[in-house]
Write a structure and sequence with these properties.
Blueprint: E1 10-11, E2 23-29, E3 33-41, E4 46-55, E5 58-64, E6 77-85, E7 88-96
Antiparallel strand pairs: 1-2, 2-5, 3-4, 3-6, 6-7
Length: about 100
Amino acid sequence: MSNGIPETFQLSQNYPNPFNPTTTIRYSLPRDAFVTLKVYNILGQEVVTLKDEFQNIGTFNTTWSGRNNAGSQVASGMYLYQLTAGSRTEVKKLLLLK
C-alpha cells in the first residue's frame, strides 16, 4: 500500500471466524470498480448480497449479521463469501456457530 492506496486486489479472511452474531469482511481495491459481495450456502445458493455498487479505490470493511436477504437469521454452518470487482473474483469460507 503506497500513500494509503492498495496496490493489489485483496479479499481478507473474515474476523472473527468462527463468528456469532456478526463478522467483518475486509477487502482492498487497487482501482475503481463495480463491486458485488455475496454470501452463499455450501450448496452454492445465494444467502445475502452485502454490496452491489460502484466503489472507488480503497480498503473497505463490511459486516454480516448472519441474516439472509429476507432478514431472517440463517442456520449455523459453513458459508462462502465471494467478492467480484471488475474482472476479479475471490471466494473464502466462513463459519457461523450458534
